[in-house]
Amino acid sequence: MVVRIPRFIRGFAFGVSLAAAPVHAIVFFSQGNSANLDNPGGGLPWDNVVQMRNESGPIGTGVYLGNRYVLTAGHVGPLTSVKVGFVDYLLDSSPAVAIGTADMKLVRLASDPGLSGVRLNTNPLGDGGNSYLVGYGVGRASESLLGANPVTWGDSSTAIKRWGTNLVDGAISGVQVGGYTSDLLRTQFNSNVGVNEAALTIYDSGSALFRQIGSEWYLVGLGAYVQNSGFSLASNQFNSSESDDNYFIRISSYSNAIDRIGAVAVPEPSSRSYFVGGLLFLGFLALRKILPLRG
Asked: How far is CA 251 from CA 9, 121, 123, 168, 214, in A?
């Protein structure tokens, strides 16, 4: 299910501090469903992006953080298992841990999949710029032509793990969607980062937004909201009304000094309701209608 967010207009200037819905799979504007199905390499935590499932099948995406913990969007559920690679892992009996008021939660696997952890970005100055998206979800419909606008989403048979790229160009705090209040990062679906530019679709709620900061990869965002259900608007112009915005929960607002979540290291909610000067803002951020992504 996709949650719609009403259209708001808020301006954000460079270095200004201001007070202040879920996601699906990945589609590309100029590539088909066979693109980017394998680990791109370079140390990207590809294996840590997992599929959230219920008794009926796939329902969303999550990120394995280590010590049997998986981070996913709060609206993804009900959950019965998590698919890591080709293996389904049942959840243990402990309740999900909500991350403050944000649309995020931690669930724990009943057994250890044998993966290392993922670094969480704690520095807001590292949020902006080129990024990688990794998620499970539907691709484009067979009748949706490459380079055509809009890009129509396919059915559940097109859902698979894919990676793509995009540019984090802004942030907004305190956005209320579906009973959650979250700080968000934004990407747009246009052509400013080349053929691998990607947008979120259904089953991408809880997908990973990674950035390489120095020599290390960090989780900077968690897929949460889109603007339209069933299709994505694309444009070759920045900040165009003809390009969809995608929104990700801003990890740096909720992570603490610990960059890996352990058995008891649950991120504390942040009380911050301001922008940190220096985050990359390109022009003005227009927060338009937003839809949460659900399976």
From this structure: 23, 6, 9, 13, 18
Tokens (6 digits) for 65: 């953080």
Distance CA 223, CA 234 (A): 18
Residue 274 has pLDDT above 50, yes or no: no
Count CA within 13 A, CB hemisphere, residue 197.
26
All domains of the chain, ordered by start, with CATH?
A: 26-40+118-292 (2.40.10.10), 47-108 (2.40.10.10)
Q: Whole-model pTM? A: 0.81
Amino acid in position 23: V
pLDDT at 146: 76
> Are 285 and 11 contacting, i.e. CB atoms less than 8 angstroms apart?
yes
**Residue bearing tokens 């120095």:** 214
**242 close to 149: Cβ distance less than 8 angstroms:** yes
> Per-residue confidence at 20, pLDDT binned at 50, 70, 90?
very low
Distance (Å, whole) CA 70 – CA 292: 19
